[in-house]
Amino acid sequence: MLKGKVLIVEDQPNFRKGLIKMFEEGQLGWQVVGEAGNGQAALELLDQVKPDLVLTDIRMPIMDGIEFVGHLRRSYPDMLVVILTGYKNFEYAQAAVRHGALDLLIKPCTEQDVHQVMNKAYERFYEKIALLEKQHVQHKQQQDQELRAALLDLPYSMAISSSLDEILRGQELWLLQWIYEDTAIHHYGKHDMSLLQFAFSNIVEELVKEAAIHARLLLVEHNRFVLIAEAGMLNESLKAAIRDASLQYLKIRIEMISMGAAPTAKHLAGLYSRFKGLDYEAADPHAAGEGIGGYGTTLSSNQARVKELEVQLMSAILMGQEDSLQQLLDRLVKELSSKSPEEMKIGALSLSIALLGTIQKQFDPDENSLLPKIPSDMPEADWTPEEVTLWASEQVENFLLLFNNWQALKNDNLIEKAVKYIEEYYNEACRLTDVAAYVHLNASYFSVLFKKTVGESFTRFVTRTRMDKAALLLRNTDMKIFEIACAVGFDEPNYFTNVFKQQYQMTPKEYRNYRVPE
Fold first, then answer.
1. If we measure between CA atoms, which residue out of 181, 188, 180, 260 comes closest to residue 226?
2. Separation of alpha carbons 128 and 31, rounded Å
3. Which residues fall within 8 angstroms of residue 19, CB to CB, at 6 or more apart?
4. 270 CB-near residues (< 8 Å, 6+ apart)
5. Which of 163, 387, 462, 479 lies 20 to 30 Å from 47, alpha-carbon distance?
6. Exposed, middle or buried by CB within 10 Å (0-12, 13-18, 19+), for 182?
7. Per-position DSSP letters for 82-151, written without gaps between them
8. Could you give the CA distance from residue 151 to residue 153 in angstroms, rounded to a whole number?
9. How far apart are CA 482 and CA 8, in angstroms?
10. pLDDT tens for each residue of 287-346
């Protein structure tokens, strides 16, 4: 799960430490990267820790929270801020709103209060991340178009020539060319080439990313791509992985040719022309098809669509409601039917790749192997719309199975946390609502989940835990019955005796005197 960075500014050390512990133990989506006891100290930390959110008290020495946030806004106008205050004062609330605070937390605040506000902050944080990602994709699309134009000796904006040179500096170029003999390409029509190009680009980009290499892949012509990668980083094992995956998943053989060190933008066309060969038109059965710029733009749009789908999926998961995720997936599959047969295949593949990407990021974030993010099979050229829809539905079904397994594991961890809480605080009130709030679940849902996981109701489990502790004290101590009752959370000794008798079929006194026959 993507975690945001939070800076806590609070002058009361104990309260500050309590908040930090809450963040460390809770599943709030935030990581504490710094703490300060006043606004002045916090200002000095901002540039160093670069938080996504500041949680700050109002009343502090040296520099209070309102003044601190005022200074903060000059350098970080869009930073998320949550205000802590012990004063239910409209003047403070007005000041907080004036400085763009996301929300207020009134001290003393419970863990549930903090959880609720931090959930809201995390949703806003993720919206910002999604927006930045979209802007990044759009900027990259524009750069790719300009680089493609430079490679093909087509007009491009000279105003950005220096930025293209910056992209190329310290890089090397590789020509990735499809080999047409004895491959599946002959079975695909002109319109299905977009599907192959999209799938191939995804394979290469994922393998390069997993190898921790900074690179970008450009579709230049129908069967030719140029990979711009860090010099000296494309080793034999990675090249073999790209070849093997292309053959395994797409039945496409490729040739990878080193074009050497990347030149400046104005020399790209000459270098590309030398390496692409003179017999290209004869070799490519689809060369007379779509115009030069069209397929590059289509590929970029397809890649952007995958990013957009991943954001939608992650947002649905963060909502914590299975129904919203199911509804989203049902809608995405249904929307495929309104597309042309060729668009359906690309749309289905885009959805599948987004599902695999979400699995990688959310369910198995530590997985780091040279495997492409692409399904083991993909829509074929002769598939009917019904077959494409069925295939997409199967991809969604597999995703939901993994999602449900992940949810079950997550829930098991929460119930395990609840059981540990009960075992530690069984001698206190230990109400269902308290424990549900501790693990950040709705009380009704927690009650059902607890019984399903543990095998008995919450009340029964708490009672049995208390009686087991009481039995242990009866066997091993000389404590009086009323003292034991108090020690395990009962204010009324007679009630304790009745509950104990229900479980052990004898009174506490009888249990203490009972000896197992030899």
1. 260
2. 17
3. 8, 10, 55, 114
4. none
5. 163
6. exposed
7. EEEES---HHHHHHHHHTT-SEEEESS--HHHHHHHHHHHHHHHHHHHHHHHHHHHHHHHHHHHHHHHHH
8. 6
9. 45
10. 433 444 455 566 767 777 887 788 778 777 765 555 678 888 999 999 998 988 888 988
3-state secondary structure of 505: coil
What contacts 452, CB < 8 A, 6 or more positions away?
A: none
For residue 137, give Cα distances in angstroms to 133, 134, 143, 366.
6, 5, 10, 24
Residue found by looking up tokens 């000459």 in the block: 270
Q: Is the dihedral of CA 250, 245, 303, 150 positive or negative?
A: negative
Distance from C-alpha of 471 to C-alpha of 493, rounded to nearest angstrom: 14
Select the more confidently predicted residue: 482 or 186: 482
Could you count the other beta carbons within 10 Å of the beta carbon of residue 162? 10
Across 76-85, 184-193, 320-329, 392-401, least confident range: 184-193
Best mean pLDDT range from 47-56, 104-113, 117-126, 153-162: 47-56
Over residues 236-260, mean pLDDT: 89
Q: What angle do CA 121, 123, 129 make, to 5 degrees?
A: 105
pLDDT of residue 289: 39
Q: Which of 108, 33, 40, 32 is nearest to 69 (CA)?
A: 40
Distances (CA, A) of 355 to 22, 180, 282, 358: 32, 31, 39, 5
Q: Which of 11-15, 93-97, 200-204, 448-452 has the lowest mean pLDDT?
A: 93-97
Question: Alpha carbon of 512 to those of 426, 468, 478, 485: distances in Å?
Answer: 22, 13, 10, 14
Higher-pLDDT residue of 359, 254: 254
Pair 395, 388: CB distance under 8 Å: no
pLDDT at 106 over 90: no
CA distance 233 to 496: 71
